[in-house]
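Checked the freezer inventory, then went back to the computational side. Two predictions to log before the end of the day. The first one is the construct we discussed on Monday; recording sequence and tokens without edits.
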Amino acid sequence: MKERIVFLDWLRVLACLMVILVHTTEPFYLGGEGTLITCEANAVWSTLIDSAIRSAVPLFVLTSSYLLFPVKGDTRAFLKRRFTRVGIPFLFWLLFYAFVPAIGSSLSDYNFAENLKRLLLNFSDAGGHLWFLYMFLGVYLIMPVLSPWVEKISKRGEEWFLALWLLATLLPYLRRIALEVYGLSEVWGEASWNEFGILYYFNGFIGYVMMGHYFKKYVPELNWKKTLSLALPLWIVGYAIVAGGFWYLMPKEFPINESIDLAKDMETTWTYCSFGVVMTTVAYFLIARKFTAVGWVYQHLIMPLSQLSYGIYLVHLFILGVVFGMVSNWFSALDPWISTPLIIPCSALLTFILSALIIKLISYLPGHRYLIG
């Protein structure tokens, strides 16, 4: 028990459930030609729910950074452990999603030859959530490079880095403004022939890596009053930016059935490394630090689920479709204003439970570490 950082287990389980909630919300604004919103109720509920959980992926990165960064000991040993723990299961599930149709789907939906071709350079369509693992492995690769520097830099120096990174999290908004004002989305040195703007090297998930270290080294444990006095304003303002931007960019005449480009545009304030999402991420992290109880719930529920969380993430998309369809049928007679906010959490919770049971069964197999981490 002493070897575990208790609040990270709580945070890992929360982030895993949030990811599944994101994926159970998607059918209410994605589909058809790419962007499909059938009614105002689905538009409102998608905005309200999904905007609150865009912090899921950043929380995973913060958790790993807090636990592993800066890297101690031999770089080769660190990378070997990480790539064995994460990389080998990733390769297995990359192949799995390419060649095994998800539960409830049809063989006619699968083009095995095309999936094999895609694997040479990327994941297959059915395994879209595996984008996260490419990013995560990249984070592991950069950690040993940054570690000697972060151990020598001062607190002020680290704050300057984070300040520049926070400035870079405004880039999605600035690009959108530039597109409306000038007709071009490039800002601060970016151009059609050059994507490397002035803040390019301060952009992306590297900021969450640095933030995890900063919290661990410089932010002391706060009492509940101070935690909430910081977390609540951060979450409220961040949520207003994230949800407000999505709603503002959404057409208001329903049904909407347009190309995927519209959804990508609407998600401008939903991007993981944008300012509003950063604010909500910090809020969740501050509150999670207060969860340090090691009673029955932690020992028999949270810690075991945390240990299974990587596997849950890997497998959940395989069963989500059939679970979502089943739960949707349960509430199909209800008005969308009532059914949609029931379908999303019920589908996510049931998918989470079934995924955990599947991964728990796999954990009894010999060599399960190479399948589920």
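The second is the one RB wanted added to the comparison set:
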Amino acid sequence: MGMTTVNPKAFLIDLDGTLYFKNEPYPGAVQTVRYLREKRYQVRFLTNITAKTPKMLHDEMRALGFDVHESEILNASYACLLYLRSQPRARCHFLVDDFVKSYFNEIPTDNESPDFVVVGDYGDRFDFRSLNQAFRLLMDGAELIALQKSPYWVSPEEIRLDCGAFTALLEYASNKTAKVMGKPSKLFFKIALDSLQLPPSEVIMVGDDITTDILGAERMEMRSVLVRTGKFKPNQLESPTANPTWVLDSVSDLQRMF
């Protein structure tokens, strides 16, 4: 059977759409996290949510009843901070929310001639002026970093454009390719594996988004579980961008499988 038979030692679990949706935990999700801990699996929570810091996500998850530690939550902003720390004296122009900007306090800001333009969650501030300024900085030689590249997200009220859509606009105009920090980038999955100190064959990714969670796992030669919740749509399995190892109705089905 090959890889499918290797017993996992850890799970990487997506947050929004997998464990909870519109600020409500899915039935059995809180118990599933507890079950995985009782079975002595390591867990990391991997999310492309960039409008919040790991501490904010931790506070929210605790409030929903999840047993999690802040150090287990890895988001794209954290991956970006690690990457920028590895680039000595890098100066950045940020298109991110103010509180996320404060998370990057140690990185020098330069709005005239930066090394990097960093695109994250900027909401209504993505307007012609801000995008045109970012475009001009890219044309002057800055490199483009996207915290994540999801085209849209589902807010509690409505479906909304996500920073991937604006990143694609900037890539098209400047003829540059963004370095993506969140899923499905190998960089992000490597950070998670390093924190677990495990090889990909012993870790399983669980998520609702075939284009980020499942594709990222496939690129790392890691097994994956696609759950039929959140962003999942049945037609995604017709000519899939990536092939999950398992498809389950919800995250709570992990309890009977592992």
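For RB: The radius of gyration is 18 Å. DSSP finds nine helices and 14 strands in the chain. Let me know if you want it refolded.
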